[in-house]
Automatic annotation (TrEMBL):
<protein>
    <recommendedName>
        <fullName>Mannitol dehydrogenase C-terminal domain-containing protein</fullName>
    </recommendedName>
</protein>
<dbReference type="InterPro" id="IPR050988">
    <property type="entry name" value="Mannitol_DH/Oxidoreductase"/>
</dbReference>
<dbReference type="InterPro" id="IPR013118">
    <property type="entry name" value="Mannitol_DH_C"/>
</dbReference>
<dbReference type="GO" id="GO:0016616">
    <property type="term" value="F:oxidoreductase activity, acting on the CH-OH group of donors, NAD or NADP as acceptor"/>
</dbReference>
<dbReference type="InterPro" id="IPR008927">
    <property type="entry name" value="6-PGluconate_DH-like_C_sf"/>
</dbReference>
<dbReference type="Pfam" id="PF08125">
    <property type="entry name" value="Mannitol_dh_C"/>
</dbReference>
<dbReference type="InterPro" id="IPR013328">
    <property type="entry name" value="6PGD_dom2"/>
</dbReference>
<feature type="domain" description="Mannitol dehydrogenase C-terminal">
    <location>
        <begin position="13"/>
        <end position="190"/>
    </location>
</feature>
Length: 220
């Protein structure tokens, strides 16, 4: 069962942003061919994507948060990620996404969907995660290991036998009812196809403009 927006909002802002940042960065960065946090954040596109997505995520909880110093919180989260470069490579951050994404990303995604707000940054993230689970190689043709202890054999069968949207039917996401939001499903499918055809890096460059349309002030 995924965490609710109310439960997430009770976390201290800095901790919430750090946990969200881990999930936001891990899969796009790994698919782009990076293996360390430091290398990934040095990439301008990934850095912009991370900052924009964190701003959007925090705004969904802004009215419930007592800490309004968003720039400071995001800066601290990024600095913390950088400090983990040696002992916590991206392979560690990407572990167990089936547990982390429902806890730190789904509540914000559902909140925005229910309010009719744009969700392209989160559709992109789930598309990257879905591709990560099934591709096995990154943009550079390098193999990586998927470590998902929360996924069951039934979940893997769903992924193997379905189309790209089958990710939304695995146990981690099924109860969220994401298929009931046609606009989200359309965006998600589009990003999955883009990543499969053109790679993560190209797709991210093409979609950053859509991210900034969601929250223009997040483009700095």
């Amino acid at each position: 069962m995924f965490t609710t927006i109310q439960e997430v909002s009770t976390e201290p802002t800095k901790l919430r942003i750090l946990n969200t940042a881990n999930s936001l960065l891990a899969y796009p960065a790994l698919l782009a061919g990076y293996r360390s946090v430091q290398e990934a954040i040095a990439n301008d596109c990934l850095n912009a994507y991370l900052h924009t997505s964190l701003v959007i995520a925090d705004k969904s909880l802004g009215d419930l948060s007592a800490d309004n110093d968003l720039d400071e919180s995001i800066g601290l989260a990024v600095n913390h990620l950088l400090s983990l470069e040696v002992s916590h490579p991206l392979s560690v951050l990407s572990r167990d996404g089936a547990s982390k994404l429902p806890a730190f990303v789904l509540p914000v995604l559902l909140d925005r969907l229910e309010q009719g707000k744009e969700v392209s940054s989160f559709a992109f993230l789930l598309a990257a995660y879905g591709h990560y689970l099934q591709a096995g190689v990154d943009d550079k043709g390098e193999e990586y290991t998927v470590d998902e202890p929360a996924l069951t054999n039934h979940d893997w069968a769903i992924l193997a036998n379905g189309d790209v949207v089958s990710l939304l039917d695995i146990s981690a996401f099924a109860s969220a009812g994401l298929r009931s939001f046609p606009q989200f499903v359309s965006q998600y499918k589009s990003y999955r196809n883009q990543i499969a055809c053109y790679g993560l890096t190209f797709s991210l460059k093409q979609t950053l403009c859509a991210f900034w349309e969601e929250e223009p002030e997040a483009h700095r």
